[in-house]
Amino acid sequence: MSLFSTGLSGLSAAQVALQTTSTNISNVYTPGYNRQITQLGETSPSGGGVQVNDIERQFNQYIASQLNEATSRSSALQAYDTQVSQLDNLLADGEAGLAPLMQNFFSSLEDLSGAPSDPAARQGLIGSADTLTAQFRAFDSYLDDMQSGINGQIRDEVTQINNTTDQLAKLNRQISLTQAKTGDIPNNLLNQRDHLVADLSERMDVKLSIQDGGTYNLTMANGQPLVAGNRSYSLEAVASSSDPTRTVVAYNDPGGSQIELGESTFEGGTLGGLMTFRSETLDKTQSQVGQMALALAEGFNEQHRAGQDLNGAQGQDFFAIGSPSVFSNEKNASDASFSAEFSDFSAVTTSDYRIKYESGDFVVSRAGSKQPLDPQPAVETDADGNKTLSFDGMTLTLDESAGAIAEGDTFLIQPTKNLAGQLENVIHDTSKIAASAHVKVTPSLQTGSTLAASSVKVEEGFALPASDIVMTVSNADNAAGTFTLSHDAPTGSEVLVNGEVPADPANVQLSTGDTLSINGVSMTFSGKPIDGDTLTLSSDPSSGDNRNALALQNLQHGGLVEGKASLSEAYASLVSDVGNRTNVVQANLSAQSVLTEQLTAVQQSESGVNLDEEAANLIRFQQFYQANAKVIQTGSTLLDTILGIR
After folding, report:
1. What global pTM score does this model have?
2. For residue 158, how many other CB atoms are within 10 A of its CB?
3. Closest Cα to residue 331, out of 240, 220, 433, 263?
4. Which end of the chain is less crowded, N or C, counting CB atoms within 10 A of the terminal residue's CB?
5. Percent of the chain at pLDDT above 90?
C-alpha cells in the first residue's frame, strides 16, 4: 500500500473517531444514550493501513436488566409511599382525626349524665353527635377520593404503557429493516429501544427476552406477551366486573378476547405500587372506618332503645347507618340478586366476601381467598319463600324475581366498606334523648348473696310489663355456678336463655354469665346467688334519672367492635396499623433506592459519557489526524523530490 493510501486511511479513521467522540460529548445529557467507541483494525487483505471495524455501543444487557428490575421495585415502593403517607397524615392528625371528636362525643354524654334534664346538656350531645357523624362522612369521602384518584392513575399508567409497547414494536421493525438494508447497527435506535424498556419498567414489571437477530420480546409477570417482534398487545383500564366502582386492568389477547387481570398480576412499577396500596391498605382502612361507624351506630342505638326519653316513651334509634353493599357480577348469566342486612353487628368483620352458585349450592369465601368458609352457611327459607344465607353477622336474601339464579353466578359482598359515609345522627329533638332507664331490675338479696343483673337492655318494640315481674332464685349451687330462676311473667311471654327457648320457660335453669330475656328485656347475671333471692323487673316511669345516660357513656370503653375492642382501641389500632405500614414501606424504599443508585452508578461507569475522558480522546484523535496528515505530506515531499531529480 502506498504512503498516500496509508495516510488517507488514517485520516478517515481519525475523522470517524473524532465524530464518535463529538457525538458522545453532545449527548452527555441525552436520556438513554450509551457511550460509543470507534473500533479500529488493519486494512485487509494487504494490511499497512487502518480501517473502522465498528462503532461499538457500550451497553451491558445484564446490568441493564438488573437496573430495570431495581427501578421497577423502587417505582412501586415510591407510588405506595406517596399514597400511604397521605393516609397516615390524615389518620394521625390530632385535630382532624376521629379520636378527639369521639372523645368530645362521650364527654358530652358525661355532661348529660350529670344533668339529664338540662336542655343545654342535651343540645350539646346532639351537637357533638352531628360533628362526629360529619367527620365520619368526611373521612369516607376522602377515602373515596383516594379510590377515584387511584382509578384515574391506573388509567393514565395503562395509556402510557400502551404507547410505550407500541413504540417498542415499531422500533423492533425499524431496527430489523435498517440492518437488512445497510448492514449497519443503528445505535441510535437501539438506545431508544433500551430507554423505552427502562421507562416501561418504571410503570410495571416486565420480562425481556431477546430473539436471534436482536429483536426484543416483552411479557408480563404472568407470561402474557406485551411485545412480540413488530406486534404489540394492549392493556385496557376497565371497571371491574365484580365491583363497578373499581378500575382494573384487562388484557387484549392475540385472539381478540379481553381478559380481566387480577391485581396480583402487577407487583412492580407505579402500576403495581398503586394496586398493592389499594388492596393492602386503602380497602382495609375504609372497611375498618366503616366497621367503627357500624359499631358506634348499632351499639349506641341498642342501648338508647333501653332508655326512656323526656316524654316517657322508649328511646328510638339515635343513629342511622346503611346496609352491606352487594354487587352482582356483570358476567352473571342471570339477573338474580342478593340484598343484605345486619343481624349481629358485633360479629361483622372487615372482610369482603364472594358467593358463587355452583352445583345447586352456594359457596361462600372471603374475597381473594380460594378457601370456602368453614363451616359454610346453611341455606334457609324466609317467610316469603326466599333463600337466605346468614354468616358473620349478616343475613343475605336471594331475589329471583327477575330470573332464577344460574350456574356460575357470583356476587361480591362488602359489609362495611362504605358505611362511614352513611352514618348520620337522626335525633335533633332534645326531648327524644333517652337518658333515663325505661325498665329496672330491683334486687332483694339474702345475706351473703352477691347476685347481680347487669347489662339490662330492651329490644326495639319490646312490651312494657303491665305489672312487676318477680324472679325468685332456688336450687343455687355456687360450686357449679348454676341456679333456677322462677318468674311470674304472664303465660305466653317470650322467654329466652342466651337466645334459645328453655325447656321450662317459667322455671329456667341458669349459670353465672347467662343472659335471660323476657318479652324483649334482657339481663346478664353475675355473682353468687342464694336461695330466696328475688329480682323485680318493672317499668321505670321516672324521666329524671341518668342510668341510661351512664350506660351510654360506658360504651366508650365497651367492646363494641369485632374482637371486643372499644371504639378508641379500634381507632388506635387502625392508626397504628397504617403508621406501621408507612414505616415499613419507607424503610424498604430507602434500601431499594440505595440499590438502584448503586446499579445506576455501575451502568453509568460503563455506558455513561465521561466528559474528561472524551476531552482527552479529542486531543488523542486530533493528534492521530495530524500525524496521518503528516504522513501524506511526507509522501508528497518524497514524490516531489523524486520527480525533481534530473
Report:
1. 0.83
2. 21
3. 240
4. C
5. 67
